[in-house]
C-alpha cells in the first residue's frame, strides 16, 4: 500500500530526531530579487518540543533505509522498523509550505545510505538545488554530507547549503571500528577536510572577486554521541578542541546516548540517557567558545571525567584557588569571566560600569552576578573575601548544599548571549506610535 | 517642582522633555492624564503634545546616543511599566547634560533598569518573529494573529517584509486592534472593521481557508509530535522558552480536531 505524506513525515521525523543539532545560525543570507526567505545570523527558534529543545529547522531524513549497520543507530539495517523514503519534490513542498507559514527557518536534511553514498548524496543535493534555483528559496539549509560521497557532489551541495555537517558520532577510532565496522575516521574526516578547504578557498577568492559564489557560508558542524563508549570526557573535549581549531568547525553537538538497540551487547545498558553528563559537556564547550578556556584547563590527565555535581567553571576555580580572589574593580575581563557566578553578559557590564564608579556588592547583584556563588572568589570595595579557611573540598560541599535547593533540570543547550537580538530595525516612521 | 501630565503618547512624552528644558521645570512626577489620581494639594501642569518639539528632542537624542541605544528610549517607553517616564526622563537629562556618554554606567539604577526593561521589550519583539503562524486564506493572503505584551509589532515589519517578499501577508494585533498589511510592494497599517477570524485565538473561519491549509497544519503538528524524545521530557524548559500565553496561536499546540 502506498504511504501517505503524513505517514512518511512521521517516520522520517522520528528517525531524524536523534541528531540533536537544529541551529539555524551563522549566516546572514539576504533575500534576492523578491524571492522567498532570508537567514539571520543569530538563528531563530520557532517552537520548543515537550523535551524543551528548540525547533528551528524542518529536520528530516530523506530516507531511513540504510545499507550500513552501525550499532548505536536506530536506522541500522538489522532493525525491523517502518521505513520510508521521500521524493525530492515532497521535501521541497514541505519546506516551502512550512516556511511560508513561519513554522521554520529552513531545512535540515540528512539521510540513511541507500544503494551507495553517491546515489544518496545526489538526492540531497537535488533537493537544495531545486529549492534554491526553482523555488528561489533563500532560507536556511543544513545538509548532511554523506561520508564516501564523491568530492564533486559535496562541492555542489556546498554551493547551495548554508551549513554542511559530517557526524563523527564516536570520539575515538578504535571504538568507532568496534561499533561501526563499515566506517572509519578517514571516511568522516575526508569530507570534513574538503569542506574546510572549500570554505578557505571561497574566503580567499572573495577577496579578489566580490561575486564569488558562497560556499557553506555558515560553516560546518558535527555530532558526538556521549556514553555509548568508555571514552573519557577529556578525550571528547580534546577532540572537540581540535575540531574547533584545526577543522574550524562552527559547532559541536553532544548527544547523550539513548539505548535504542538494547539487544546489541557491544553497547552499555543504561537506565536513562546521561543527560547531566551531556549538559556538563555543553557547559565545557561554552567555556571553550565564549569564556576563553583551553580544553586542558577544563580537564587534566589526573581527572579525565567532568564532575557531575558541579559545573566545570566552578570545578576549575576550586582546583585553582590560588588565582582567586579576583578584584572586581581592577582585574581584566578575562579573569572576571573565570569567576563562578559571573556570565559573559555580567562580565561585560562590570568592565563597562566600573569606569564610572567603584562597584560594590549591591551593584554586582543588580547587574546579575550570582553573589551566593561569586562571593567566595572576589573582592570588591567593601566586600572582603568570604572564603574563610575552607579547603577546596569543603567549599565545594558547601556550594553544592547551597544550590541544591533550586537545582535546575539539565538539558538546556540554548545559550543566550547579550545582545540577544540582532539589529532589529526600527519602524519606518520613527515617531509613529499609538497611545 | 511640579506634577506633569501628558497625553500618554511617545510624542507627548518627548514634548514634556522639551518643556522641562525650555521652562526650566523640575518635575516630581510625570504621568498620563488618564492615570492621574485627583489630588488637590499637588500642583499640576498639563503639557500639550507638539510634534515639532518632540521631533527636535528625538533628533538630538539620536545624535547623542550610541548606535546600540538608538531605539532604547522608544522601546522602554513601550513597556508601559510603572514609573517608566521618570526613569527615562532622568536618563535623557543625563545623556544631554553629561560631557561623556553615560549609557554604560550600570552602577546607576536608572541606566541598569532601563537596559533590563529594554531587554524585556526586545524579547517580546523576538517572540513575534518566532511564534507568528500564518494561515493561508482562499484569496492567497497569509494571515497571522498576535497579542504581544507590548506594542512592538512595528519593530518586526522590516523582518517580515524582507523574508516574505513574495507573498501577501497581514499580521494583526488582536489586543490593540490594528495590523500591518503587505501588498507585495509596501506595508501599511490597517484596522479591520469586519473580522473574519476568532477574537480569541485568531483562527480564520474554515470556509475562508485555502484548501491545503488544514493539511499543512496537520502535517506540522505530526512533525512536531514526532521529533519529541519522550525520555528527555522537560516541560519547565519548554515553558521557559515558549510561555503558555502563545500556545493558542500555535497549530502544533492546539488539540487535534
Ligand atoms: S550510516 Fe548512518 S543511518 Fe546508516 S546505520 Fe550508520 S549511522 Fe545509521
Automatic annotation (TrEMBL), chain A:
Cofactors per UniProt? [4Fe-4S] cluster
Molecular function, one GO term? metal ion binding
Radical SAM core domain residues are 61-197
Q: Which InterPro entries match?
A: Aldolase_TIM, DNA_rSAM_put, Endo/Exo/Phosphatase_dom_1, rSAM, rSAM_sf, RuvA_2-like
Keywords, in A-Z order: Iron, Iron-sulfur, Metal-binding, S-adenosyl-L-methionine
Q: Fetch the NCBIfam families from UniProt.
A: rSAM_link_UDG (TIGR03916)
| Protein name (record) | DNA modification/repair radical SAM protein
From TrEMBL, chain B:
One Pfam family name is DUF4130
Domain DUF4130: start-end pairs: 84-252
Top-rank lineage group of the source organism: Bacteria
The molecule here is called TIGR03915 family putative DNA repair protein
Amino acid at each position: 500500500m502506498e504511504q501517505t505524506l503524513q505517514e512518511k513525515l512521521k517516520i522520517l521525523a522520528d528517525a531524524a530526531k536523534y541528531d540533536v543539532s537544529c541551529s539555524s545560525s551563522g549566516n546572514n543570507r539576504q533575500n534576492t530579487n523578491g524571492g522567498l526567505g532570508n537567514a539571520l545570523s543569530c538563528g531563530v527558534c520557532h517552537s520548543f518540543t515537550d523535551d524543551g529543545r528548540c525547533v528551528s529547522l524542518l529536520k528530516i531524513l530523506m530516507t531511513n533505509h540504510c545499507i550500513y549497520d552501525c550499532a548505536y543507530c536506530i536506522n541500522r539495517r538489522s532493525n525491523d522498523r517502518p521505513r520510508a523514503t521521500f521524493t525530492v519534490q515532497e521535501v521541497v513542498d514541505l519546506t516551502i509550505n512550512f516556511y511560508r507559514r513561519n513554522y521554520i527557518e529552513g531545512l535540515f536534511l540528512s539521510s540513511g545510505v541507500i544503494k551507495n553514498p553517491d546515489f544518496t548524496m545526489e538526492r540531497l543535493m537535488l533537493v537544495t538545488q531545486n529549492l534554491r534555483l526553482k523555488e528561489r528559496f533563500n532560507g536556511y539549509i543544513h545538509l548532511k554530507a554523506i561520508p564516501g560521497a564523491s568530492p564533486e557532489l559535496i562541492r555542489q551541495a556546498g554551493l547551495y547549503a548554508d551549513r554542511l555537517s559530517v557526524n563523527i558520532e564516536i570520539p575515538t577510532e578504535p571504538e568507532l571500528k568496534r561499533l561501526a565496522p563499515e566506517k572509519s575516521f578517514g571516511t568522516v574526516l575526508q569530507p570534513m577536510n574538503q569542506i574546510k578547504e572549500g570554505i578557505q578557498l571561497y574566503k580567499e577568492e572573495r577577496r579578489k572577486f566580490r561575486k564569488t559564489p558562497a560556499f557553506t557560508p555558515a560553516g560546518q558542524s558535527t555530532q558526538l554521541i556521549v556514553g555509548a563508549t568508555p571514552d573519557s570526557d577529556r578525550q571528547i573535549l580534546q577532540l572537540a578542541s581540535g575540531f574547533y581549531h584545526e577543522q574550524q568547525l562552527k559547532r559541536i553537538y553532544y548527544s547523550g546516548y539513548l539505548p535504542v538497540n538494547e539487544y546489541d551487547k557491544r553497547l552499555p545498558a543504561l537506565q536513562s540517557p546521561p543527560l547531566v553528563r551531556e549538559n556538563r559537556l555543553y557547559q565545557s564547550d561554552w567555556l571553550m567558545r565564549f569564556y576563553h578556556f583551553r580544553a586542558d584547563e577544563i580537564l587534566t590527565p589526573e581527572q579525565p571525567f567532568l564532575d557531575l555535581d558541579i559545573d566545570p567553571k566552578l570545578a576549575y576555580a576550586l582546583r585553582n584557588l590560588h588565582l582567586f580572589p579576583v578584584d572586581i574593580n581592577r582585574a581584566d575581563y578575562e579573569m572576571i569571566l573565570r569567576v563562578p557566578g559571573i556570565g559573559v553578559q555580567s562580565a561585560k557590564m562590570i568592565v563597562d560600569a566600573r569606569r564610572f564608579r567603584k562597584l560594590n556588592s549591591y551593584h554586582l547583584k543588580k547587574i546579575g552576578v550570582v553573589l551566593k556563588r561569586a562571593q567566595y572568589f572576589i573582592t570588591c570595595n567593601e566586600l572582603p573575601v568570604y572564603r574563610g579557611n575552607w579547603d577546596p573540598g569543603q567549599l565545594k560541599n558547601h556550594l553544592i548544599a547551597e544550590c541544591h535547593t533550586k537545582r535546575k533540570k539539565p538539558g538546556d543547550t540554548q545559550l543566550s548571549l547579550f545582545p540577544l537580538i540582532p539589529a532589529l530595525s526600527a519602524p519606518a516612521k520613527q515617531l509613529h506610535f499609538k497611545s | 517642582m511640579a506634577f506633569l501630565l501628558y497625553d500618554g503618547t511617545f510624542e507627548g512624552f518627548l514634548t514634556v522633555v522639551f518643556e522641562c528644558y525650555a521652562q526650566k521645570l523640575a518635575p516630581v512626577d510625570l504621568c498620563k492624564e488618564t492615570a492621574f489620581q485627583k489630588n488637590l494639594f499637588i500642583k499640576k501642569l498639563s503639557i500639550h503634545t507638539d510634534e515639532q518639539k518632540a521631533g527636535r528632542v528625538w533628533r538630538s537624542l539620536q545624535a547623542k546616543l550610541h548606535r546600540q541605544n538608538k531605539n532604547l528610549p522608544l522601546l522602554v517607553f513601550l513597556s508601559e511599566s510603572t514609573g517608566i517616564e521618570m526613569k527615562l526622563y532622568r536618563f535623557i537629562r543625563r545623556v544631554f547634560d553629561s560631557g561623556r556618554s553615560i549609557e554604560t554606567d550600570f552602577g546607576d539604577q536608572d541606566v541598569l533598569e532601563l537596559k533590563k526593561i529594554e531587554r524585556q521589550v526586545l524579547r517580546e519583539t523576538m517572540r513575534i518573529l518566532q511564534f507568528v503562524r500564518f494561515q493561508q486564506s482562499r484569496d492567497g493572503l497569509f494571515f497571522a494573529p498576535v497579542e504581544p505584551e507590548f506594542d512592538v509589532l512595528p519593530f518586526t515589519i522590516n523582518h517580515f517584509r524582507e523574508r516574505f517578499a513574495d507573498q501577501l501577508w497581514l499580521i494583526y494585533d488582536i489586543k490593540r486592534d490594528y495590523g500591518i498589511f503587505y501588498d507585495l510592494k509596501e506595508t501599511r497599517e490597517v484596522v479591520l472593521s469586519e473580522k473574519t477570524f476568532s477574537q480569541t485565538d485568531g483562527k480564520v473561519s474554515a470556509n475562508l481557508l485555502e484548501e491545503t491549509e488544514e493539511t499543512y497544519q496537520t502535517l506540522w503538528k505530526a512533525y512536531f509530535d514526532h521529533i519529541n524524545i519522550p525520555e528527555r521530557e522537560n516541560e519547565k524548559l519548554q515553558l521557559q522558552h515558549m510561555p503558555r500565553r502563545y500556545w493558542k496561536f500555535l497549530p502544533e499546540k492546539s488539540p487535534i480536531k
